[in-house]
# Entry
Amino acid sequence: MSSDEAYSSFLDQANQETGASKASTQSGIGSTKVIDTDVPGALRSIEHYYTSDADEPFEPVSLRWTGQNMPSENEFKDLIGHTDEISTLSTKEFDPKGQYKEVLAAVEKVGDGMVRVFRAHHGKTRAEYYVVGFDKEGRRIVGMKAKAVES
# Structure
């Protein structure tokens, strides 16, 4: 077998479907609750990825909320069914380079104009970022969520 044929055979084997690609699209981050009520149409049309070691897509969030204002960290933790630490970030801390303007603008529009970012920690290197607002009329927390792997 010539070296060209051997190399071609090697490439063919390396590019075969092994099922690993399906696993690689799953970042291994625990999942929390994101939808239990209608999702605003403006959020369904967003196709944006959060840049991290995993580059995961943003997904819509729409959760019933009976409070009068945005939830506290502990209230949000209970709302999404999370058992680890929750922290908040300013929108500037979340998006220092202006990469997620479209996401922030959409959340601001469907909510009450105020955007809050919650970080749901999953160990030391994994997290979920919730970019959310409060839809007072719909009595729900609405926004977008992205998973992140941060090494």
